Amino acid sequence: MLKIKIEKLIAGGQGLARHDGCVYFVWNVLPGEEVEVEVLKKKKNYAEAVVKKIISASEERVTPREEHYLNCSPWQILSWSEEVKWKKAIAVENFSRQAKIELPSDLQIVADKENQYHYRNKIEYNFVYKKGRLHLALFQRETNDLCPIDECCLAQNELNKVARSILEWLNSRADNEKFQKLVVRSDSRGRILVGLYIKGKIAKLNCPLLNKTLVGVRVFQLDDGGKWELGDYVGCSFLTESINGIELRFGVESFFQVNVPIFKLAIDDIAEFINRNDNVLDFYSGVGSISLPLAKKFRTAHLIESGEEALKFAEQNIDINRIDNCKASLMRAEEAVDLIGKGNVLILDPPRAGLEKSLIAEIIERQPKRLIYLSCDVATQARDLNILKEHYEIVFSRLYNFFPRTPHIESLIILDKVLK
Hints:
Structural class: alpha/beta
Shape: globular
Helix content: 10-25%
Number of strands: 23
Order of helices and strands: EEEEEEHHEEEEHEEEEEEHEEHEEHEHEE
Strand content: 25-35%
Radius of gyration: 23 Å
Distance between the termini: 58 Å
């Protein structure tokens, strides 16, 4: 056993400590705590470790709500005020270290203290098959092992209720061992859609559980190439969310924000930087959840999306809302660079990996006048801004706590072209 003292929290959510020239990354610890750890993996300059004993606990440590909290929301052990403080500190440090950019001292974090739990409108469970029965499960952090659980307290209560009813129904089927994963998601109207993922073929679905709440069940089967393909389904195939009076349809596999009330506040902030004569390019547009609610604010928008399901819903959302100044195209952002012009406002909401280097190079070459960059990973966003900063300056920055009780931070950075 090794005794170390935790210095701080870092972007991944672990605690950081230093001992004998080695940096240690440790889960389930807080700054200032002295702990005994077992080293799981050691490299030349760093090691990963797990806590075996907390010698002196932080005053900010709180009792987690769940036994499995490390697998879904490892910051359940942290007080609310400290969570907000450390999310800001982590963002500031990443921009300072990676991009040599100092975020403003009054940087704000938009957060809802009253809704720290049961806020997620989507939850994904795996299944563990034991003694002829399926059990809901989550992956144990840093492993491929599945941990059986009853429910997750981040998910809306109704999602967990439906998950349990689906589980009971599946366990009444003779082919229950074929089911691998369950996705349950809702909209603000309380309607719920379920996705079931299976290996192999199953008998007809014939789900008896559909009602005013559970409106649809879709099955996805694993093909020979290891890709999930749509199989049987019953009921409705989409949910609907309203933002700024715009009805947005989305499906089980469509990307859509899991914390809509906070997301709407981010949309309000973005709206302040869109003008009536702007021509917008919305890269990684999904179903249009950013640009379509702002359609009255700009002249035109072209939505670029690489996912077929999301693109289908984006086109439907344009049609059902009778929006005549927007269109959507199926292509990767890197394939759409010829659309970028100096007069464009470019909306960027990439996956956690951030922007491709080739896309950043094209942005610098083509010089759109404004970049609206919403990111779910401050580390990759800071990395990208380190390249863009010679050509663009930050005119707005704000953080959003879309994912309370987890280390994840959403960051909005708006940049204008530097005039030379």
